[in-house]
Structures are given as C-alpha cells and as structure tokens.
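Bumping with the actual sequence this time:
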Amino acid sequence: MARQADFIAPSILSADFARLGEEVDNVLASGADIVHFDVMDNHYVPNLTIGPLVCDALRSHGVTADIDVHLMVKPVDRIIPDFAKAGATYITFHPEASEHVDRTLGMIRELGCKSGLVFNPATPLSILEYVMDKVDMILLMSVNPGFGGQSFIPSSLTKLAQARKMIDESGYDIRLEIDGGVKANNIREIKEAGADTFVAGSAIFGAKDDNDEHVYNTIINEFRSELAAANV
C-alpha cells in the first residue's frame, strides 16, 4: 500500500490558551492539517490539561479540520463519548488505560470516530497483532508523556520502522503518528523511519522572528521542505 500523505498536527498544549481559537485558525491557515489535543488527567500522567469542552468550543468557533484527541487518561472509557460528542475526529488511547482494549477501540468507532492506540517509549507493539483491523491510527510517543518541550528519544526511529512494517504487511489503511521532540532538524529522518503524521507543539507555537512575532507559516514550510526531501 502506498504511503499516506504527510500530515502536520500542531499540539495546542503549546498554544496561547487566552487566544486559542485565533491560534488554531492561524496554524491551519499556515498549512497545518490536523489539530492535536493532549488530554492529561493528573493520574495516568503527572499533569492536568484540557477536556471535551475545549474541543466543542473550537468546533463552535468554526474549526472544521480534523481534531486528533490523544487521551492520557485512566480509566479511559468514561471520557470517550464526551469527546466524540464534542467533535473529535480521531480518538487515541494508551492500552494500559483500558481494561479491554478491543472493546474500547470498538466503542470509538461505534461513536463515529477513528480509533487509535498510543505506545509509550518502553511499551512494546505486540498488542497490535490482535487489533490491526480496529485501528485507524498508531501513535508512537518519542518522549515520555506528561509534559511538553521534551527531547526526541532516538530509539523511537527503530520502533517507527517496526510499526511501519506491521502496517504495510497488514494491508489496512492506518496512519502512523509520532509525538514528542519533532523539529525541523529531525522530521526528515522521522519520515524516513516510517511516520506520516507529525505532532509538534513548542516547535510550531513557539516559533517567532526577531521582532517576537509568531511565524507559523515559516516553520510549517520548513517542515514541508524537509519532508519533501525525505528518501522514501
């Protein structure tokens, strides 16, 4: 199966929440494809972020792009219907956060969303062997979840290659997403390892020029140039 088109997914965790609607409008206008939500519960991960009301607010604001909700929440089943109702496109979760992974994946699809599994740096991919037919996205964490601004873990490249092989051999239409430490100086090798969807938070929302003005289009265009140069 041919590789899917590259998607850039800014993480709103690094946005200015006082101007969130405007921030999301600007990154989408600058060429981003997906809006990425990092949902943390101060239980599964040591931080507390946003809930479905923010997703609903962006939809009400007029955002029509896909919203990619990464749930770092345990237990996870209770919150999934709320995000589906709020307008999520993708809902991904960690297998450790569900008592019955197959059932949780099925619930997401039954609610009209695309489903996905998230793997921490030290979590093996073996569970995928049994649920590839129920997965629309595989998200690999290239940092340990819970905080923005961390550095990319190099061993994630090997894991990406493993996941890409599993997807290609399955024949299913599954996106392969990477989250953590993605920057212009490594996004090319990340694509070459197998990713097609790239989450970036501080690298995009923190990009400014010498006059302290945001330059989302500059960094996203730089990402695009690096992706186009990848040898795949």
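The tokens above came from a reply further down the thread. The longest strand covers residues 34-40.
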